[in-house]
């Protein structure tokens, strides 16, 4: 597997580091007991709370206090490691599915960024939800596969201390992609215990993690390495391998300052079973050659594939530096700088024979023959040729500078912040047509420089002991610059009529994209927090948000507006409102509810799969209700339950009042948790996604699912064992679903799959394939177990 040995070496280095550090700790411990005993004998009767330093300052003993920051919206929350440790959390995907009001779904092999479903949005791979790790932006603009692509597979679950969840566009610190809100992963400074973990389960699933925090007198350290693999339940195994490394060091150069630097390395490689049409699964068989008598068929089930050559590979490296300086109790300066290198090569086939018809055949020697280039010896072993290859290589760099000042206005406390951010992406992106990972045509290929400069100011005013006002204003400026890298020999016909000939099919027509554009947007925010009684807050929120469009569509709109979907702006703006409340009662019950509304100016996005704008388009409105509860019945029994409801509809466009395809309507998450003092704990978890329309007219439905998981763990001294029974009821469910048009082999030549030029080219534009639900199945019942040793 590509670069596998590199990551194995990384894991070995991390392990050696941990072992050496542990040996040093033991050696140091052996020399200290006598000195510690003497110190105990001479210790004063009163506790020592401070020691004078040479500068006249007091060196205080470190005291760690954990508390949640004051919230600005009822639907916002902070989820700590303890909140999800008894939920499935072997992968970041599993952790994300435990967050209130969020469902993430994986399709096509496991190595891609997930689909994000939140607040009535199928946010694709991240278009309308902003994702950060330690405030470093993860969403990738102008991505080969999808705008705002947010791949979090580089995160090792054990390194996450907590999540900060912000729902809605009400928060000044978040800009691009934060229409539904933002999620910030906060990593640990150190492990409380060094550990080695091994997990395994059905489908060849394996995971190995090493974590260590070598003790240094002047800093906190964290080292972690992970190796993960699975084949999934598929007929054609995923062969998914993922390698991760993470290192972090935190120190205080002076009593007034804090500094930390961390680095991440990640590499993934997989094969994808793909999205399969429901009609073929229901038939139970796939016709591979209808020309024989009888037709040649093979059994076809929900875990099968039509084009088993899908999949891809990706890697990412991050370097992130933070510095905070607090010269006085009223002033805080903080700075961040980051740099990343990213690469993705992705092979997909969503439509099979729809666009290429009977163009490609496999010869007896295994070679692929293109019938448009000559005689293929009469071979009728036709193979699907609608594959695409998406390539993305980029360097990312950016940073921010923040100043916070605490002061008083008419004797009322005020916190003021001002910040300047920059995010810069140097991108090489391409879309190719391929058949079984062999390229045969290039649709677009260009270099893009996309730079963003942002500035914002926010004031938090404590008007009374029970009334808090937050006002903010944010400005963002985008600079798009693209250079076409298609060879000069490639002909382009972006506005051709497919009826005039087979070569004018837009699926085989390259598009040159180049130019530059500058766009800006201003986003006001306003939040009011009322505390009518202790432990109860009422929130009123208003804010504007936005997501940027793919630079390819922004530049394409200038030369070929029809292909760009007649996009009116490079930035789709949202306006959000929310009324909510949060309370804690009897020290045992937490309740939160929110009523919200969000208007979006346009749903139009650029499709990296086709190289043009993706319809439907139009302004939309979503409103909904969020509800959360946490209850501690006894010292050992806990309940949590989350419900999110949304009503997403188009306001304008071809079908005002129509459904927004695949937008989630009802999400539920909950469970019972038991924790006994004997070291044993267990949880029963439920996750629910309701049915949702797959198209605007609601004639196709994407069925939902209900999943039950049973988890348990037991710790004895320094050994901990865990066992998980996932999808306990063995539910047949669809993890990801799409409304698409495709053609399988038996359909080619007639009806919706009539050939443009029989035996040679793709289908005509008026016969664009059979409309159907295409889906990736979720895992059936499976068992996973693990053993961790702490040292």
Tell me about this structure.
The chain has one domain (about 75-375, about 380-455, about 460-790): Maltoporin, Chain A. About 10% of the residues lie in helices and about 50% in strands. It has a 22-stranded antiparallel barrel. The radius of gyration is 28 Å and the shape is globular.
Helix share, percent = under 10%
CATH level 3 topology: Maltoporin, Chain A
**CATH architecture annotation:** Beta Barrel
Ends distance: 32 Å
The CATH homologous superfamily corresponds to: TonB-dependent receptor, beta-barrel domain
Kindly give the count of domains.
1
- The class by helix and strand makeup works out as mainly beta
Number of strands: 43
Task: Explain briefly what this protein structure is.
By secondary structure, this protein is mainly beta. The chain has six helices and 43 strands.
What characteristics describe this protein?
791 residues; mainly beta; Maltoporin, Chain A; 22-stranded antiparallel barrel; 8% helix; globular
List strands and helices in order, with pairings.
Blueprint (H helix, E strand, L loop, with lengths): L3 H28 L1 H9 L8 E3 L5 E3 L16 E4 H4 L7 H5 L5 E4 L9 E4 L2 E2 L7 E4 L2 E2 L22 E8 L13 E7 L7 E7 L3 E8 L7 E11 L9 E12 L5 E16 L3 E2 H6 L1 E5 L6 E4 L10 E19 L2 E18 L11 E3 L5 E3 L16 E23 L2 E24 L2 E27 L2 E18 L30 E19 L2 E13 L2 H9 L11 E15 L3 E12 L4 E3 L4 E3 L5 E13 L4 E14 L15 E10 L4 E10 L2 E2 L7 E2 L2 E12 L2 E8 L7 E9 L27 E8 L4 E9 L1
Parallel strand pairs: 7-10
Antiparallel strand pairs: 1-2, 3-9, 4-5, 5-6, 7-8, 9-10, 11-12, 11-43, 12-13, 13-14, 14-15, 15-19, 16-42, 17-18, 19-20, 20-23, 21-22, 23-24, 24-25, 25-26, 26-27, 27-28, 28-29, 29-30, 30-33, 31-32, 33-34, 34-35, 35-36, 36-39, 37-38, 39-40, 40-43, 41-42
